[in-house]
Design a protein that fits this description.
The protein is globular. Helix 2 runs parallel beside helix 3. It has a single domain, classed as Decaprenyl diphosphate synthase-like (Undecaprenyl pyrophosphate synthetase). Strands 3-4-2-1-5-6 form a six-stranded parallel sheet, sandwiched between helices. By secondary structure, the protein is of the alpha/beta class. Helices cover about 45% and strands about 15% of the residues. The protein starts with 6 loop residues before the first strand and ends in a 9-residue tail after the last helix. The structure holds farnesyl diphosphate (FPP).
């Protein structure tokens, strides 16, 4: 494949509906979603994607039932337990976007292990958005700028788009050329709002657990067929 996007963002939506369609509990959908994620990470890395960012848990997801929330964190731990060795072998670097330090201790320990193990890797960067909300992320950057301004480390002329970009969780990461959302919903839901200003949006009708590597390639092909003008002609 030619013209592979450097950065792909994915809103992994539809786990609950996938489970409901089969008469299964919601967590069975998330479990199937975790399996889908494994394969997508592998294929994205093989295709030469430099950054893969997945929306795993939003700041709004705490509103779900306690059991579902703790179930998602258990799956996260399981995912890392099962996949960390292979991620490391494949030179994938794990990175977390969001206030992940507020996650339960066992999930935090698992995340920190994945960060430490893969810190020196130079292949695809796998950004997991956890306890992530894009508006909160922008507020955090504004606060950082205000603090630096007050402390004299930054002056008014230094406040520019780049200054904001650098202070987001994604500082140093190129903006996503492509954002994919599964399950037929057509919203950004507080995901990469600043970074996605010029992203191509591709909506897939399949529920996340059914989003296979071939579906990923189809989404990339749809992106490749689009003309990107960035406001020009
Ligand atoms: C959205 O589907 C999915 C989530 C909120 C959780 C994503 C979790 C995983 C893919 C599995 C866990 C893996 C890791 C690495 C955390 P939904 O529940 O909103 O689906 P619905 O809209 O059909 O109800």
């Amino acid at each position: 494949m030619e013209r592979i996007p450097r950065h792909v963002g994915i809103v992994m939506d539809g786990n609950g509906r996938w489970a409901a369609k089969r008469g299964l509990p919601r967590l069975a959908g998330h479990n199937a979603g975790m399996k889908a994620l494994k394969e997508i990470v592998k294929r994205a890395s093989v295709l030469g994607v430099e950054h893969l960012t997945v929306y795993a848990f939003s700041t709004e997801n705490w509103k779900r039932g306690k059991e579902e929330v703790s179930g998602i964190f258990k799956l996260l731990i399981l995912y890392i337990d099962r996949e960390l060795d292979e991620l490391h072998r494949n030179n994938v670097k794990v990175n977390i976007l969001g206030e992940y330090r507020e996650l339960p201790d066992n999930a935090l320990a698992s995340l920190e292990k994945s960060l430490a193990t893969t810190a020196g890797n130079t292949g695809m960067q796998f950004n997991i958005a956890l306890n992530y909300g894009s508006r909160a992320e922008i507020v955090r950057a504004v606060r950082a700028i205000a603090g630096e301004l007050a402390g004299g480390a930054l002056d008014m002329d230094g406040i520019c788009e780049q200054a904001v970009s650098e202070r987001l969780y994604t500082g140093g990461i190129p903006d996503p050329e492509l954002i994919i959302r599964t399950s037929g919903e057509k919203r950004l839901s507080n995901f990469l709002l600043w970074q996605g200003a010029y992203s191509e949006l591709v909506f897939s009708d399949v529920y996340w657990p059914d989003f296979t590597p071939d579906e990923l390639e189809k989404s990339i092909e749809e992106y490749q067929g689009r003309a990107r003008r960035f406001g020009g002609r």
